[in-house]
Specification:
Order of helices and strands: HHHHHHHHHHHHHHHH
Oligomer: single chain
Largest sheet: none
Number of strands: 0
Strand content: under 5%
Radius of gyration: 22 Å
Shape: globular
Structural class: mainly alpha
Length: 465
């Protein structure tokens, strides 16, 4: 029972924060949806590209989290000042490397959005009226990358040392700002100009600036566990660089290529009919909504596993791994039940979409009910437990093989060659989730996923074998 209390003490605030973020996305979708299918499709496809950046950031943050949670476990159980000091130094070096990479990544995406917004939109759809609306959305989103990126990675790091409540509070504030700004700017309330799609982008930017200010302020001024201050941005990181590349970079590459794969899925969908695009915009938000607890448990799994291994208890880590697998199956089944029961109600909120889009959305909802059981289980294992154990290189290979060799080819065959119904197209595009579930259980049983991690100091090493 103490295990589940520990997991959900971490997972529930993370889940609530994700729920708030998804709520913002859902409200954006509903507000823009009142402008018609074209506006809804344009913002959805533009956000598909922005989501690629966010997934890269998640990979960057989760890669750093593997190290941070392990070093935090070492620091907590340290039996000497030397070990504690080395763990603290390694913590700060990890955060420093993560922030430097994050800013570089944000600059690359911002430049691409600024220089070639039309090219990006045309990679998703050939419909010029949707492209034009998407370009307008991108125009106001260029700076968003910097603020959302920093907020994401710093939040993940704070969670890794058990600080989950403050990021949740900040998300509530950002939610209220985003809701207010979107309402005012999209519809032109309180004397503001009616900006439509552009208002949705600008409202999101304002909310991200507020969110980033609060998160960075906490890290630089109030946080005591990591103790990272602005001066540490200039600290030397060479001693940890090799370990950071070995453990964290495979997570970034894995999630980055996964983002490109997810983006490719969006491209496949974008080249289907407009009703399918609009339906996917509705169901994608619903899918995120139904998996917030799974996402929270997944991140909690990485944190708990890392801390336990940092304390040097391999046997306990294996036991926890099986507990997480069973928990994944249960939460996946509950998510499927949620979607099945509430799908009609959720689709009913979108009164301005076409009947064809509504029919397609219902088919996709049923497909998600099937996939979500497998997705929930393997997410907790691959993005949580196995990643927390340091098995990042193998996970990188597995993610890419299942996605690029299996799921995407099957999805393209189903959509373009066989022209199957929406249900089977979606199942084919997400078939990697099914196969990864079985693979992750085999990997768990092998015990080979538990890796040794160094602080970069020759004097101390992680106690996990």
């Amino acid at each position: 029972m103490s295990f589940y209390k520990k997991v959900f003490a971490l997972a529930l605030p993370i889940a609530l924060q994700s729920l708030i973020t998804i709520g913002v996305n859902m409200l954006d979708t509903m507000m823009v949806g009142t402008l018609g299918d074209s506006a809804l499709s344009a913002t959805s496809l533009a956000n598909s590209f922005i989501s690629v950046f966010q997934i890269f950031c998640m990979g960057l943050g989760m890669g750093a989290s593997v190290l941070v949670s392990r070093y935090w476990g070492m620091k907590q159980s340290a039996n000497s000042i030397l070990v504690s000091d080395d763990a603290t130094r390694a913590l700060r070096q990890t955060v420093c490397l993560m922030l430097r990479l994050n800013v570089t990544l944000a600059a690359l995406f911002a430049m691409a959005t600024f220089v070639m917004p039309g090219i990006i939109m045309r990679s998703y759809t050939e419909k010029e009226h949707i492209v034009a609306l998407g370009v307008t959305y991108f125009k106001y989103s260029v700076l968003t990358y910097f603020f959302v990126g920093i907020s994401l990675v710093v939040t993940i790091v704070l969670r890794s040392v058990g600080q989950v409540l403050y990021p949740l509070i900040v998300s509530v504030i950002a939610f209220l700002v985003n809701l207010s700004a979107n309402y005012i700017l999209i519809f032109g309330k309180f004397g503001a100009p009616k900006m439509g799609v552009a208002g949705a982008a600008l409202g999101t930017l304002i909310a991200r600036i507020v969110e980033c200010s609060f998160i960075l302020g906490y890290l630089f001024i109030y946080d005591k566990k990591i103790g990272f201050r602005p001066r540490h941005l200039l600290m030397k990181t060479r001693s940890l660089l090799r370990e950071y590349i070995r453990i964290s970079i495979p997570v970034l590459i894995s999630d980055g290529i996964l983002a490109i794969g997810t983006n490719s899925v969006a491209m496949v969908i974008g080249h289907l009919d407009e009703a399918f695009i609009a339906a996917n915009a509705i169901t994608s938000v619903t899918q995120q909504l139904s998996t917030v607890v799974i996402s929270g448990v997944s991140q909690a799994g990485a944190i708990v596993t890392g801390i336990t291994l940092g304390e040097g208890d391999k046997e306990k880590t294996m036991k926890q791994g099986y507990q997480f697998f069973r928990l994944g199956l249960l939460l996946g089944a509950l998510s499927a039940a949620f979607i099945f029961l509430f799908s009609d109600l959720i689709i009913g909120f979108y009164k301005d979409i076409t009947p064809e889009a509504m029919k397609t959305a219902k088919s996709l909802m049923m497909a998600i009910c099937l996939i979500i059981v497998f997705q929930g289980t393997n997410s907790i294992m691959t993005k949580g437990v196995l990643r927390g154990g340091g098995d990042t290189k193998i996970l990188m290979l597995a993610d890419n093989i299942f996605l690029w060799v299996l799921a995407l080819p099957l999805g393209m065959l189903a959509g373009f060659y066989f022209k199957l119904p929406a249900f089977w197209i979606y199942v084919a595009l997400k078939s990697d989730q099914i196969f990864k579930t079985f693979w992750s259980f085999i990997r768990l049983r092998s015990g080979k996923w538990i890796k040794k991690i160094s602080t970069g100091s020759k004097k101390t090493q992680s106690k996990a074998a």
